[in-house]
Amino acid sequence: MDREGGKGSLEPLLEKITVESRLKVDDIELKKHKAIERREIFEEARKQLWLAGPLVTVSLLNYGLQVISVMFVGHLGQLPLSGASMATSFASVTGFSLLVG
What we know:
Blueprint: H1 19-74, H2 78-93, H3 95-100
Helix pairs in contact: 1-2
């Protein structure tokens, strides 16, 4: 592969790049790379939130069911409230954890 001049030389194909111009190019590439990373991070976070949304909803509804049950028992008095609270805590630690896995 000869050049137009007919000589095969080993001189560089690209112009010599000064240190100052290279720093400018590196800064531009760095800013461009960060912008791409931010966009990718936001896209990934959006996808994960979309997938985790139903799981979060189910957990909140399950907790809400327990809270509402204890609130209803709270109208019966202090002793039934403490018993229901202990039973709910015990059931959530043992039974529900084993069922859910």
